[in-house]
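REQUEST FORM: STRUCTURE PREDICTION
Request ID: SP-0412
Submitted by: Lab K.M.
Chain count: 1
Length (residues): 522
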Amino acid sequence: MTIISATGNQSATPLLAATKTTATVTAVASQQAAATQSTSVTIGQATSSTPVYAITKPPLVWENASADLISSKLAGNFSSAGNAARFAGLGAALMARFATEAGSYSQSVLKQTAGSASAVSSAQSQLHTKADNQITLSVKTASGALVDITLGSDADGLGVQVSVTKGTLTEADRTALAGLADGFQKAIDGLTAQPPKLDLSGLTQFDTSVLSSVDLHATLGKITTQTLDFHADASTRSVKSTGELGTVDISVDMSKRALLGTESQQKQALNQYLKQFSSVGARGNADASLMDMFKDAFTALNSNYGETATTYKSSGSEPVYFSLTKTDKNMMTGLADFTASVTQTPTHKTNPMKLSEVDTFSYEVSQASTITGDSTQNRNITQKQQSHLVASFHQPLTPGLQLNLTTDKNSQNYLYYQIDDKAESETSVQYHKGALVSAFVDQSASTSTHIQKYVKGWLESDTTTPVETSKTTDLLGKLQSAWQNDAPRMSFRDYLAHQSLPDLSGLVLLESDPAQLKNTSA
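STATUS: Completed
RESULT:
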């Protein structure tokens, strides 16, 4: 433990005899000296050199005396306000350290306050475990080693810690860890931004044969708290973030890799979902920043899947191994199964005259796939996508005007919307004795718009507008038509196995707008 005085020139001295002696923090101290010099202010005659009073900043206490790069960054960031500036560059520096170092590391800086050595030690420990603002990246290597990288900040301190347990790091481990530096820092920068962002794509791009899992946990703020729990490994990815705006919760199951499509197929599906998310957010009057977080997280978890597969192993005591073909993949979305939801924090005070009129936004969307049968020759594939939007909000009678509802009836001029939309897309593919005998997709979309119009507090109109569309597309029929046009001389089975097939994946994608679904060719 080392104290750096902030009164005049800084020097490193032991706090108590009981603490270990450390070397002078030369580099750190020199960076702090200019900012922490005593300040003299003279009142009265300009020629007098006697100070009337002095403002003295408290000395700093360092956990370890060191002139390394990370200590220098701590020194530079400590005087800054806000988590974004406090944590700037620290995550990347801690991860980049693995390029040359494989062991643990701990450093912190505190404002010196009156207290015993045990009190200071406790404050240092809290920075690494229970700080007001805490970010921890936990990485497990394939060999079993566990690496925890922690950043902590509060009003009086800033600290970082690297812990390597349950094994030692190989050169491959260290290289892979250092490769996460940019992704870790981007995740930190996003979380500490205002409004916060979920930039997690850099934490999904790792070799699972070297690093078996990556977890990121964050708790930022005391009064208004932003939390994050992120996990990624070879078979699952998930993120849950809760804050002032609301909650984003997404889970992706990549265990059925045999159903994953090509990169272009995945991109097409992802773009379709992102387009719908934007439309859903606009229709439900969602907070734009919250929807951006949802879309960014959904993109990150559904990108960089890695290698696909052709064989699927069913669950159970006697599993069945199914071999899937390009025809099967061609009739799927190409994405991994997922569940995703975004819920905005309800607003109860929009209309003080009618507190029962709450502004809400809740959206759920999912995909689930099943592969059944007794063999590859007799297999059934089902993929179901569905979504549900529930929202309510106030709007001015004249678009573009500012809504300002009060207890005065003259202000009670508005529209109150209640939205309830559902959509579903279910694809079914069946093989019998190795032959494709059935393939179709059933789709439906419904919307319900309930609008109450108030003029000077009086209900002038109350309308509900339901819209619903459904359709069935014969995918097998489209493949047979393509066969007849392109290669009628070969068997249908050979055509499916050896020829380029029409892309049918776009026809199975979820469509939540009834009008769009109706206009899409079957």
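NOTES: The first strand starts at residue 2 and ends at 4.
Reviewed by: T.R.
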